[in-house]
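hey m, so remember when u said the tokens were messed up on ur end? i reran from scratch. heres the input so u can diff it against urs
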Amino acid sequence: MNDSKYDIIIIGTGLGGLVCGYMLAKGGRKVLLLEKNAQIGGCLQTFSRFGLKFDTGMHYVGGLDEGQIMYQFFDQLNLLKDVRLSRLDKEGFDHFSIAGKEYRFAAGYECFVETLSQQFPSYKQDLQTYVQRIRAISESSPLYDLNKAGDSSYLESPYLHSSVNELLSSTTSNQQLQNVLAGNLPLYAGVKDKTPAYVYALISNSYIQSAWRIVGGSDSIAQSLANSIRSFGGEIRTRSEVSKILCDSTKATSIQLTDGEVIEAQHFISDIHPQKLIKLTDSKLIRPVYRERVQQMENTVGNFTLYLKFKENSVPYLNYNYYYYAGEDVWASYHSQQTEPQSFLYMHQCTEEGQQYAQSAEIMVPMDYQEVAKWSGTYTGHRGSEYQEFKQKKAEQVLHLLEQSFPGISSCIEKFETSTPLTYRDYTATTNGSTYGILHDKNAMEQTQISQRTKIPNLILTGQNIHWHGMLGVTVSAMLASKQLTINN
């Protein structure tokens, strides 16, 4: 092999790309990671405003107690030495306000059941059944076992072909309890009668095991992985946007950057949205019917986000996440935002372990792309006064809603910044600023599930659009992609 060639080029430096880079570079492969932006990390990116750091996508992590699944991955990726963690309140890591009533999710299976059964004493058995089911779904998933990387039998699982709401309604007849159990909707941007039960179960199970914030920002994960990649001899280039994936009649041969540079490699991994990848790949190996299917896939909803800076020592630090729903039906509240906000997720940023006062917070509100589609041809910082007025009005509505739950909070806010799905689109290159990429649909699993393998034999996919999203889903996706290259080459 020519010295100018790389073994593997990885397009995108989100968590999926970085984990692939780590695993392959550690294994002795000559790896190059390419990032179009100035900052690596994808959804792990942070940004600074008002002298404070804010997360953009990764806000809290589950399953990080010793022996649990994410702990094992963090250990394998050598992250535990660099990434500082702060455990969320075991007695209530998630709080929910639903139509004016308060509920809590406690960490640990027994505590979870005991805490909720205090408000639903006649449904303790239902809660025990719920825990048994989400554990069984998670523990039986081949995605938890990398030795089953090629096993597609899980596509026959009934929990892929039943929805979240069907799982919950079959677990308990109490509709109020069903809504409470579905209250973590913002973690997967679920759609009623569509989102498969397994997506929900894997995420919920991970957080019930244990829930943590990342101290000082999620970019510490990206930087740790990047440092390790470089120590193994891998290369990472920022401000290097791929414009084409060049192929011959049998395989991909090289990539071309927007400045015209062409870089060759033996294998390629894409950590960008499949709809974006298809546009970069002009090859007859990818059939028109596949292109059309990928381009027509529905994406999850985006977010309007407020980034708050508090006055010094004015707001006690909340060691939990706060979900708000105006109505009894959390599904309706989550997806009914276009007139005025009906739901939000409110989180304090963790700047140090054991902190007493919050310096900053984020409020995430679902936002349909159509609300901002009129500015789709513009870019961050150049969208005009009408867009700024739109964001200001939306921010005032959200803060008014927050004030109902936390009286006096508005007087504690020194400054705030906002973002929309357009901002997310520009920084993460996800279609229409979608929070979690492609929406999996239990009614058409084969059509909304993308294989890691492509018809281009040396091009593999990773990232949140493969299998499922979140830190756990993306890490597993990346490890499976890396394993496929290791096994087959």
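this time it looks ok to me. Residues 149-155 have pLDDT under 50 and may be disordered. if urs says something different then somethings off w ur setup not the seq
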